[in-house]
Design brief:
18 strands, 7-stranded mixed beta sheet, 304 residues, globular
Length: 304
């Protein structure tokens, strides 16, 4: 099975602490690397993770709060200093384009790579990126400013043809794709070999949803049905539910409710408020509702 991993670079919230960096993750899927959010310190965390800067092909920004984007211009500058030549795609709310262009004009005007900016409509769920192996969708969220999450989906693969059946029936290479697409095989003697005898099903497609920042949305689970792994902000515990409502954030229990109602396999918690010295209290609250919940931490890597 091809790698599908989430590398946690930062899982803290707005106020920096000695324990947590601001929001940033790398989603690794089938050899491609996508950066999701880019808070301060992202470059250092990339170094510590031994993730090659040059392999990042696109950046996805959820919203224009500093703990999710203040690290971007510094990283773009570093790309230039490292001699990057490959184009870089940036997906973000439309308000970011003017800010980014001004910063690049001042700090990144003589580099050898181009930045393609893609404005994301944060109010609708739609496919914003697609290639042969995956799609990436925007997920409308509710925060104090326009904000969206991102949903990474593998595309279904063709079934695998059985090698011993190829040899036994002397199936030519030219027919393998036809059989993968559902064709039966007819031998030289006229015997029909049913397709289901020749192939085994491919692994089920995996998916990863990143939802930060947002208040609890009772209907969000409808957009996330069947997702394999969900990252949902869990800024507060139930002891601070009034702050969650005031600042349009979620509690760990509310994140677990979304995971349970969506029928996901795994829940990752993050975006912790700096008031918590020990996030175990958040984990316990989440696991009371959704047992397969996990705390994220810097340098942690999760298989989807």
């Amino acid at each position: 099975m091809e790698p599908f991993r989430v590398h946690i670079l930062g899982c803290g919230s707005a106020l920096p602490t000695p324990r947590h960096y601001a929001s940033a993750q790398v989603v690794e899927i089938r050899g491609k690397l996508f950066l999701v959010d880019c808070g301060e310190g992202t470059q250092m965390q990339l170094r510590r993770s031994r993730i090659r800067f040059t392999k990042i092909s696109a950046v996805f920004i959820t919203h224009l709060h500093g703990d999710h984007c203040f690290g971007l211009i510094g990283m773009l500058s570093t790309f230039g200093l490292l001699g990057r030549t490959a184009r870089l795609a940036i997906y973000a709310p439309p308000e970011m384009e003017d800010i980014l262009r001004r910063q690049m004009k001042l700090f990144c005007h003589d580099f050898d790579y181009e930045v393609d900016f893609h404005a994301v409509d944060t109010t609708s769920q739609q496919v914003i990126y697609e290639d042969r192996s995956l799609t990436i969708e925007s997920i409308p969220l509710e925060h104090r400013m326009p904000c969206c999450g991102y949903l990474f989906r593998e595309k279904a693969q063709q079934p695998h043809i059985l090698r011993d059946m190829i040899d036994f029936y002397q199936i030519p290479v030219s027919q393998i794709n036809n059989i993968k697409c559902g064709a039966d095989w007819v031998t030289h003697e006229g015997e029909k070999v049913a397709n289901e005898r020749l192939v085994v099903a491919a692994e089920a497609p995996r998916s990863y949803a990143y939802c930060s920042d947002t208040r609890y949305i009772p209907t969000l689970h409808e957009r996330l049905k069947g997702v394999t792994t969900l990252y949902h902000e869990s800024t507060y515990g139930e002891d601070n539910i009034l702050l969650a409502k005031k600042y349009y954030h979620s509690t760990a229990r509310q994140a677990a409710q979304v995971a349970r109602d969506a029928g996901v396999s795994h829940l990752l918690l993050g975006h912790y408020s700096s008031r918590y010295e020990d996030e175990q209290v958040l984990l316990r609250e989440a696991q009371e509702v959704f047992p397969n919940a996990h705390l994220t931490d810097e340098q942690a890597v999760f298989d989807v």
